[in-house]
UniProtKB/TrEMBL annotation:
Residues 13-86 form the Transcription regulator PadR N-terminal domain. It comes from the Bacteria. It comes from Kitasatospora griseola. This is Transcriptional regulator. Pfam families: PadR (PF03551).
Length: 114
């Protein structure tokens, strides 16, 4: 069975958790920063993705606290999540390297300038 490429929001969420545990709002901000503002996660999308990643064992709840009368969960990457993220990062690196190699060796049409 071949593995599908990871969807960008999933990749960004796992990346956002790679260096430190974060709560929901911090994840939304971190994904925005990592993507240069291209990806803006809505709350419903975020928590649906977090539930899926929890079920897959890629993240875990690192802490729960009550802030202003509301429960706040902090999420962290699991060992399995770190492995999946590392595999996807390597896949992307290899694809980007091949694209760069092919671009560098591309034949320019006659009359084209650099």
């Amino acid at each position: 069975m071949t593995e599908r490429a990871m969807q960008e929001p999933t990749l960004l969420l796992l990346t956002a958790l790679a260096d430190a545990p974060r709560h929901g709002y911090a994840l939304i901000q971190e994904v925005d920063a990592i993507s240069g503002g291209r990806v803006k996660l809505r709350t419903g999308t975020l928590y649906g993705a977090l539930d899926r990643l929890l079920q897959q064992g890629l993240i875990e709840v690192a802490a729960e606290e009550i802030v202003d009368g509301r429960a706040r969960r902090t999420y962290a990457l699991t060992g399995a999540g770190r492995g999946v993220l590392a595999t996807e990062a390597e896949r992307l690196r290899a694809v980007a390297a091949e694209a760069q190699r092919r671009l560098g060796g591309a034949v320019r049409p006659r009359g084209a300038t650099a």
